[in-house]
Specification:
- By secondary structure, this protein is of the alpha/beta class.
- The protein contains 22 helices and 31 strands.
- A hairpin with a 4-residue loop joins strand 6 (about 185-190) and strand 7 (about 195-200).
- The longest helix is centred in the C-terminal third of the chain and has 27 residues, at about 680-705.
- It is globular and about 90 Å long.
- The N and C termini lie far apart (about 60 Å).
- Bound molecules: zinc ion (2 copies) and fe (iii) ion.
């Protein structure tokens, strides 16, 4: 007979962990108890040695799907006499809550079987869930995770639901959002004036009818509203784009299952796993040609973002959609895009959605389970066996990133675009869901909400704040307004590099390639093609080299109109002669004046602007409709077969190492002027860039004796760079470090800021 105490830390509450422990204890004939505490779950078990061993193994290998163990502490105790059974003890409520809230996850197989079983009391009930699935993060106001602290608190359990909730052997034991048609939330359908049209299944049928007729439906989801329309209906998609004021940028679609997804896109094993995973991100895939999806859905590329249903409402919607359009051979496919006007955060409440979306949607499928935390869909991809994110939100937050070392709580307030914020707690970093572009008050309110919410659910207060060097970002201003904590700044591209290092739990000296769009540099110019040296232990950091700076004629205008960057490069390389081919005389004169006098021509070493310049040179986009469009168009015309690449030689100037971006542009421009095809120019440029960057890093490695190279920045979203740059570095004997948990774009900045702050506090530096 032995007795053991096991303490389990991690995501172990509200995920069916105690019933799981209970069942295993019964199975292995053990006595003892299991208990929720504020730090985690405490288990004591007593029985034969073999059985104890068996129990410990299942704890390691057979966890319930949502449980995640961060740490196990085991201790042997004196056996107790007279203990007869195994029980689930009442929770002890102590202060200092350390239990993690689970992210929201998709409906599980058991629930789906009930959902489509006509004899089940939850048949077609769009809010069914159990301890293995359903909403969590988005319906929880505060900790500990308990029904009274979720938006389910206004729905008292009926007798049947209560019995399930209280039975340790039931799949719904302590499933906080447990509900049924008798006691839970319900859906209804209204028109754009808010007039009630139908309730319950009839409402979903009404939405289906609207979609099939080419209408637009605003759909209340898990983390906010979606706007849906038939993706096969060109007119419907066009209407949606026009009303939402979102030209060109790709829209995500939803299909019923992986089988249907294969009809529209190529899917390999990893992509299948991503699609079908419990997080259910939008997965960006290669679309098949002539697949019945309107080209309007993704006009700039042959890639398409597909996700599978993840709430019972989605599943019922597709079920009814299929029933209604049985005779058609194309599987149903719906555009599912965030319910907002461009650049505003996703809508949350019924009334808010009705007022903000009434000019967009024809019908609103509403429900009365409040969304407490806004959370967009995550966007992920996988190529060549490696995956990554474009956006990390629903399904992943608030799961922490585990750090190499523990430290004080630090708040990183993130950048301006694609903002996230991050709070550390011990050796875990909690990066918020995608907040968006902090350019309007709605986004800023969301930022403030998340800032307060993260502190509340993690029960921590920051000891310091780290912000971007740019003083005018709303996230920077917020930091400056906090007088309770010391505020430090960290330059944007160093933050990129600290972030990718933190994800990889790398400690020590490293080179960093920050290949990015925009970030204010330490010298007041705009950086974005940087070769950095960073030491995470000593916080020594320096800029070893950069792209050769080029003027951005018109400042922000040059970002919107890529041809301006092309002219800036031409002017810098060939002087006035370089601008001869401009079509419009007035345009030419104006640009020449701007460049000559240097009026509103900030200098930039940005790699993103080099992509713009080449794209502008080829005339692919005149004025962009969304960030990154010029680069995306350049990538989509690229010839995929040839190997020839332009060269981009680096050059030492004193002890500063310039990248050959001018030479690279020159080669592209000369080739193009000689009549080279856009496909070949695009290829020559991208492959040349990759080889050039690898040579550049190798030279810095030779001089600095550092072999690790961290890669970050928005340009790393380019899949050719993502795949080939690490290989090119390896070929030169270097070890690349890349993002896999966070996007390489500015969504990663807040993590870099917080870990930097942690180390700063640890080293006791007060000023920097
Ligand atoms: Zn379930
Ligand atoms: Zn009920
Ligand atoms: Fe950036």
């Amino acid at each position: 007979m032995i007795r053991k105490r096991i303490f389990v830390h991690g995501q172990v509450q509200g995920v069916g962990f105690r019933p799981f422990v209970y069942r295993q204890a019964i199975f292995f004939s053990l006595t003892g108890f299991v208990l929720n505490t504020s730090q985690g779950v405490k288990i004591e078990i007593q029985g034969k040695e073999d059985n104890i061993g068996g129990f410990s193994r299942t704890l390691r290998d057979d966890l319930p799907p949502l449980a995640r163990i961060v740490r196990l502490e085991e201790e042997e105790l004196e056996p107790e006499t007279g203990e007869r059974e195994f029980i689930i003890s009442e929770s002890s409520s102590q202060k200092g809550h350390e239990v993690l809230i689970s992210p929201d996850v998709c409906t599980c197989g058991d629930c789906l079987r009930e959902l489509f079983d006509p004899r089940n009391r939850r048949y077609l009930y769009p809010f069914l869930n159990c301890t293995n699935c359903g909403p969590r993060y988005t319906i929880t106001r505060s900790v500990p995770y308990d029904r009274s602290r979720t938006s389910m608190t206004c729905f008292p359990l009926c007798t049947k639901c209560r019995a399930e909730y209280e039975n340790p052997l039931d799949r719904r034991f302590h499933a906080q959002p447990n509900a049924c048609p008798d006691c839970g939330p319900e859906v209804w359908l209204v028109d754009s004036e808010g007039r009630n049209l139908a309730r319950r299944t009839e409402a979903i049928l009404g939405a289906v009818g609207c979609l099939l007729q080419g209408g637009i439906v605003a759909l209340k989801g898990l983390g906010g509203f979606h706007l849906a329309c038939d993706a096969g209906n060109e007119k419907a998609v066009g209407n949606l784009r026009r009303r939402k004021n979102r030209p060109d940028k790709a829209l995500a679609v939803m299909v019923e299952n992986e089988e249907d997804a294969k009809y529209f896109a190529e899917i390999n094993e990893e992509e299948k796993n991503l699609l079908e995973g419990i997080q259910r991100p939008i997965v960006v895939l290669h679309s098949k040609e002539e697949n019945g999806i309107s080209p309007e859905v993704s006009p700039d590329t042959n890639r398409i973002g597909i996700m599978l249903p993840y709430t019972p409402l989605h599943f019922v919607l597709f079920h009814l959609l299929k029933r209604e359009k049985k005779e058609q051979k194309t599987p149903p496919v719906l555009v599912m895009t965030s319910g907002n006007s461009s650049s505003e955060p996703i809508s949350l409440g019924n009334r808010e959605a009705l007022s903000r979306l009434k000019a967009i949607a024809d019908r609103f499928l509403l429900h009365n389970r409040d969304i407490l935390v806004r959370c967009d869909d995550s966007v992920a991809f996988s190529v060549g066996g490696r995956g990554g994110f474009y956006r990390r939100a629903r399904g992943y937050t608030p799961s922490p990133i585990f750090l190499a070392r523990s430290g004080e709580t630090v708040l990183g307030t993130g950048p301006e675009l694609k903002n996230t914020l991050c709070l550390t707690k011990g050796d875990q970093a909690f990066v918020s869901q995608h907040v968006g572009d902090l350019k309007n008050l709605q986004s800023y309110d969301f930022f403030l909400e998340m800032c307060a919410h993260l502190q509340s659910v993690l029960q921590v207060q920051p000891k310091a704040i780290v912000r971007d060097l740019h003083p005018d970002y709303l996230s920077s201003r917020y930091a400056e307004e906090q007088d309770k904590y010391p505020v430090y700044t960290l330059q944007h591209h160093y933050a990129h590099i600290y972030s990718v290092l933190a994800e990889n739990r790398f400690q020590g000296a490293c080179l960093g390639l920050a290949l990015d769009g925009t970030g204010l540099g330490e010298d007041g110019t705009i950086w974005g093609g940087e070769l950095l040296y960073v030491n995470t232990k000593t916080l020594e950091q320096s800029r070893i080299g950069s792209f050769r700076p080029v003027p951005m004629p018109g400042g922000e205008m040059a970002v919107q109109e890529p041809w301006r960057m092309a002219r800036a490069y031409q002017y810098q390389i060939w002087g006035e002669r370089g601008l001869r081919d401009l079509q419009s005389k007035s345009e030419e004169e104006l640009l020449l004046q701007i460049l000559e006098k240097g009026i509103n021509c900030p200098l930039t070493s940005s790699c993103g602007r080099l992509f713009d310049a080449v794209s502008g040179l080829l005339g692919l986009v005149h004025c962009i409709a969304y960030e990154g469009q010029a680069a995306i168009c350049l990538e989509s015309v690229r010839d995929k077969t040839g190997k020839t690449a332009y060269s981009a030689p680096f050059k030492w100037e004193g002890d500063f190492l310039y990248f050959g971006n001018q030479e690279l542009f020159t080669a592209a421009a000369e080739d193009f002027c000689r009549g080279g095809r856009v496909q070949d120019v695009s290829r020559g440029f991208v492959l040349g860039l990759i080889e050039g960057l690898a040579d550049w890093a190798a030279e810095a490695s030779r001089v600095n004796g550092v072999e690790n190279v961290a890669l970050s920045g928005g340009v790393m979203q380019n899949l050719t760079l993502f795949q080939l740059l690490p290989k090119a570095l390896q070929k030169r004997g270097l070890s690349p470090l890349v993002h896999s948990l966070l996007p390489p774009n500015d969504g990663c900045i807040s993590l870099g800021q917080s870990v930097y702050g942690q180390r700063l506090l640890e080293m006791g530096k007060i000023n920097f």
